[in-house]
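Supplementary Note 3. Input sequence used for the single-chain structure prediction.
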Amino acid sequence: MEKGGGKPASSRLCFLATLCAMFWVLIFYFHFAVISNEPAGSAAQATGVRIDRSRIRIPERDGASRVDVPLAPPARASELPPPPPNPVARPKEAEAEEEEHATEVRREEAPPKAAASYPFERALKTAENKSDPCGGRYIYVHALPPRFNEDMLRDCEKLSVWTNMCRFMNNDGLGPPLGNEEGVFSNTGWYGTNQFSVDVIFGNRMKQYECLTKDSSIAAAVFVPFYAGFDVARYLWGYNISTRDAASLDLVEWLMKMPEWSVMGGRDHFLVAGRITWDFRRLTEEESDWGSKLLFLPAAKNMSMLVVESSPWNSNDFGIPYPTYFHPAKDADVFLWQDRMRSLERPWLFSFAGAPRPGDPMSIRGQLIDQCRSSSVCKLLECDLGESKCHSPSTVMKMFQSSLFCLQPQGDSYTRRSAFDSMLAGCIPVFFHPGSAYVQYTWHLPKNYTRYSVFIPEDDIRSRNASIEERLKSIHPDVVKQMREEVINLIPKVIYADPRSKLETLKDAFDVSIEAIINKVTKLRRDIIAGQEERDFIEENSWKYSLLEDGQRIIGPHEWDPFFSKPKDKGGDSSGSSAEAAKNSWKSEQRGHS
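The predicted structure, written as discrete structure tokens, is reproduced below.
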């Protein structure tokens, strides 16, 4: 190369090296930055690399190490896909165990169902508080307007057609005190109580109840202090049905507006009427029909009504004892009376106080009177429309105290106050129809009626002329003694204590009734929660259900079916003999207590 012309040789070598380096940089950049970012298939086509799709690496769950899973080669278009591989045979026990495990997993994973709640659950829970003596026993009392109770007492002279009831309202409904000139009674606790005064006696006892509450949400039951018996008594004679029903309709309308009603639709409500149920069961709208329709009102059917005589064929009324003349203020008064009844000499085998019913061809009273007259061991106290010793409490009680057995046939209706007067005297009652006591007072009397009474079916007297004297004489003296002791022990449960005080340990008729109502409502509430509410209840057989023992639910044929098989024969409807029975009951009130 000539001196001073062209570039030096080292510069050219550096330049060529630089171009070469840049070329390879571009090649590597193109390979790694462009080709590697394309899909696998495209990259394979671009580079000519063939991918074996028969093996693909698949990651396991939870970031576990990957495993190689072989895939079946695709079938040709003319071939059917290969069948799936046969599962490995497993024992049935293993399959069942896996299914049970899967079911348990699904149950655990399923969202829990919300338990149904009921507004009365708080009331049920109070019973679980063992430190609360009133737990499960609270009673809420509706504050009714005075037109439903107190106003009636202020107009007491209008409560009966024939009787001025004002004197019977004294002493909180017990009536005037009875003297003890003949030594028949105790020195204290005896009153001339009217047999239809339970409304006010029960209401005044409720005022002294130890577990009253103003919080209805904890109440085991709700009391309605409506004087239903006094109300119907005002208008039974000479008034149209609109007047007879007015207070009942007014009451139901008032109750249904109260929040307490909505808790159970009234099924936890109860009220008291000191009259027989037929006074409240008018079926028709005929002016000549008897009574009010209180117990047939739809809302009233949900409530429980305590009456001195209930219907065997209806489920919304319950029998409670007629009031007697004895209303003790303390336990000691009861114990002294019981001891006295145990020690009495009883010269008469049996006795009967009552009048014949010549207008009733089914009555056996005439035959009872004839048998008593012809017997030397029977004491008879005949009653009539005029002045009679039957109207004297001391005379009646003296006769009962001197008798081993007291005959208690049906009155104008099934029941009689006399049955409770005789038991108070320690006299064993003799019944002739199960409707007179056995299906009536199941809260207060033993369901095993042979423990405290004798039963002679009416037909034995009416058709077979059975001898009462022979039947009673056939009972062994030891059995008679046991029965009399049972009757005497029952005395506290069939009397109403003085409302102005409270028995210390004994339970009277009020206490027994309250306990029974609370048990009834509590059982209903628990059945509702458990979905076990009675669905097959047959109302026409209500009398059978009342005879079931605790825990029993099924009824069947009964020995007393003939007595109650035809409701219309005796009180089944208000247009038949039940209305006549109710009317005759009022006539009996006119002539006295027979």
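Residues 1-7, 38-85, 567-575, 590-594 have pLDDT under 50 and may be disordered. The radius of gyration is 44 Å.
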